[in-house]
Write a structure and sequence with these properties.
Order of helices and strands: EHEHEHEHHEHHEHHEHEH
Shape: globular
CATH class: Alpha Beta
Distance between the termini: 20 Å
Structural class: alpha/beta
Largest sheet: 8 strands, parallel, barrel
Number of domains: 1
CATH superfamily: Aldolase class I
Number of strands: 8
Strand content: 15-25%
Bound molecules: phosphoenolpyruvate
């Protein structure tokens, strides 16, 4: 059975505090009638508390874009999972390809972050995905399997619902090139199988697997219609309230 879709806005390093609050004020009325989709916003750290306040106790959740794995300590410039909980976050994006590519985040760090998020009661949105070169060399499944097994090594899940995986082919992020629904579904199905192999099929059935990579209002419905695509992680098209609301309302 199809799970309740989950659509997450990743604003990356965009928007000041007042721009984030303005977005929320414009966005909430646009989606007030949508009841069958879960939504989260991931603003920059500086705006988390302001966005939490603007969202109030409603149905749109708060996510962070990254975190350190320790609870506190001498880690200048870092933010801990305890701080994210305190700021109102329920979710945290981990292992985004931009963090892997520009900040040298490796599998060891990603795996420590996933374990720490779960320990602190945050739902990790674990990002995996191949580069264009890896796809062209036929290495998509190998790369996704290595990233997924590396990140989840030693993890024990309760129901499986406390983990979200985002399949984001690096070649589709911010490029306007989207994987076709069939290409994405093939990898999502593979990820579901890997999760079943690691955690059992009941747990794998409870984990939502999001697609990310140039999701737009025009392609959201066809992607979300695929059997193993349970939602989307949206960058560029989440920056405008109207465009993100159209994605959230993909069912029409
Ligand atoms: C992302 O960065 O997670 C992303 C999917 O970006 P975009 O939608 O802009 O491709």
């Amino acid at each position: 059975m199809k799970k309740r879709p989950f659509i997450v806005a990743n604003w990356k390093m965009n928007k000041t505090i007042s721009e984030c609050v303005d977005f929320v004020e414009e966005f909430l009325p646009l989606v007030s009638m949508v009841e069958d989709v879960d939504v989260a916003l991931a603003p920059p750290f500086t705006s988390l508390t302001a966005v939490a306040r603007a969202l109030g106790p409603g149905r749109v959740s708060l996510a962070a874009q990254n975190m350190h794995w320790e609870e506190s300590g001498a880690f200048t410039g870092e933010i801990s999972p305890v701080m994210l909980r305190d700021a109102g976050c329920g979710y945290v994006i981990i292992g985004h390809s931009e963090r892997r590519q520009y900040f040298g985040e490796g599998e060891g760090e990603v795996s420590r972050k996933v374990a720490s998020a779960l320990r602190e009661g945050l739902v990790p949105i674990l990002c995996v995905g191949e580069t264009l070169g890896e796809r062209e060399y036929g290495k998509t499944f190998e790369v996704v399997e290595r990233q997924l097994r590396g990140a989840l090594d030693g993890i024990v899940l309760e129901s499986g619902a406390e983990l979200v995986v985002a399949y984001e082919p690096v070649w589709a992020i911010g490029t306007g090139k989207t994987a076709t629904p069939e290409e994405a579904q093939e990898v999502h199905h593979f990820i579901r199988g890997l999760l079943a192999n690691i955690f059992g099929s009941e747990s794998a059935g409870n984990t939502r697997i999001l697609y990310g990579g140039s999701v737009k209002p025009d392609n959201a419905a066809s992607l979300m219609g695929m059997a193993d695509i349970d939602g989307g992680l949206v960058g560029g098209a989440s920056l405008q309230p109207e465009s993100f609301a159209r994605i959230v309302k993909f069912r029409g």
